[in-house]
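Justification of computing resources. Each target in the renewal requires a structure prediction run like the one illustrated here; the chain below, 82 residues long, is used simply to show the kind of job we budget for.
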Amino acid sequence: MQLRRRDRAWLERWVKVPDQVLAEKDPLAMELYEKYDQLAMPKLELNDIDVRDLVEFMQRDGRLLASVPKVIFGVEPASSQQ
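Resulting structure tokens:
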């Protein structure tokens, strides 16, 4: 699976007001909405500081997680199961 990077401003807006981003029919938001069976990202009611901290956490820990084996709690992703 290839990881795609999101523009930070887009990601912060998506985390803060996903309902607005979907209502505007943002192409990337619509792609995610369709990919995940039309399950909308919940609006978490985070303030600007929390949104910034969450995005920084995802960036930092995303790099760390990319370097570890793709096994979580003893379950491998479906694509690697036989």
